[in-house]
Specification:
Elements: E1 7-12, H1 14-17, H2 27-42, E2 46-51, H3 59-63, H4 69-92, E3 98-102, E4 111-112, H5 115-123, E5 127-131, H6 141-152, E6 156-161, E7 166-167, E8 179-180, E9 182-184, H7 185-190, H8 198-206, E10 211-215, H9 220-226, E11 232-235
Parallel strand pairs: 1-2, 1-6, 2-5, 3-4, 3-5, 6-10, 9-11
Antiparallel strand pairs: 7-8, 10-11
Helix pairs in contact: 2-4, 2-9, 6-8
Length: about 240
């Protein structure tokens, strides 16, 4: 089957890459995620990726332990770069052409983020992995995903999570929580549904970028790219 979307951005949290413990990098999770991204690229879809850094460090968590928030956020950005390099290695072992582009300059390990260059890589069929968030403290990787999606013209953000979509309540704490098939981004903000943080949702709303939230399992990213109905669609008009 053909891809419904020409260009997508995939967002995954660092904690998911850490496996059951949520720390470090679980080789099995990394391998499965790389296989999913490779399958999407083989569909001919121009694919970019943003991975969080929470499996190594989170600025907010560090602040609660006495670490300066700005310093902690920069530490988290370095964690996203470790994850990006690990994914690049896993993808290239599968024959997938990739580029890691960082919002913080690290010439020895990756390219600096330049929008036109990122777009060109995508046009050439390379998977582009965006590292180091936005390069600024106080902004989450959710916001970085929304920003990069807008900059490179992604048609949708695919947010792979541990749950089947967006619920009216935390489904882990409330087994009877109700999953939404679709909802508007404005409603997600008003109801504080934690789809992404408020800045990210607002960016998507202003730039008419839909978000599909779904559970990361074998074939789910490819299914979303093909246009199959999975998870929850969060868009300007739903």
């Amino acid at each position: 089957m053909e891809a419904r979307y020409r260009r997508v951005l995939v967002k995954i949290s660092g904690e998911m890459l850490g496996g059951p413990e949520g720390n470090g990098i679980d080789p099995n999770v990394l391998s499965a995620f790389a296989e999913e991204i490779h399958d999407v690229a083989k569909l001919g879809c121009q694919t970019s990726v943003v991975i969080g850094g929470g499996n190594f460090f989170r600025g907010l968590a560090g602040e609660s332990k006495g670490i300066d928030r700005t310093t902690g956020d920069y530490m988290g950005m370095l964690g996203t770069t470790i994850n990006a390099l690990a994914l690049q290695d896993a993808l290239e072992k599968r024959g997938c052409r990739t580029r890691v582009m960082s919002a913080i300059q690290m010439h020895q390990v990756c390219e600096p983020y330049i929008r036109r260059r990122a777009t060109r890589h995508l046009e050439k069929g390379r998977v582009v992995i965006f590292a180091a968030g936005t390069g600024n403290p106080y902004f989450s990787t959710d916001t970085a995903a929304a920003l990069r999606a807008a900059e490179v013209g992604a048609e949708v953000i695919l947010k792979a999570t541990k749950v089947e979509g967006v619920y009216d309540r935390d489904p882990v704490k409330h087994p009877n929580a109700i999953r939404f098939e679709k909802l508007t981004q404005r409603e997600a903000l008003q109801r504080d549904l934690k789809v992404m943080d408020a800045a990210a949702i607002s960016l998507c709303m202003e730039n008419n970028i839909p978000i599909i939230v779904f559970a990361l399992r074998k074939g789910t990213i490819s299914a979303a790219v093909r246009g199959d109905r999975i998870g929850t669609l969060v868009s300007t008009d739903a």
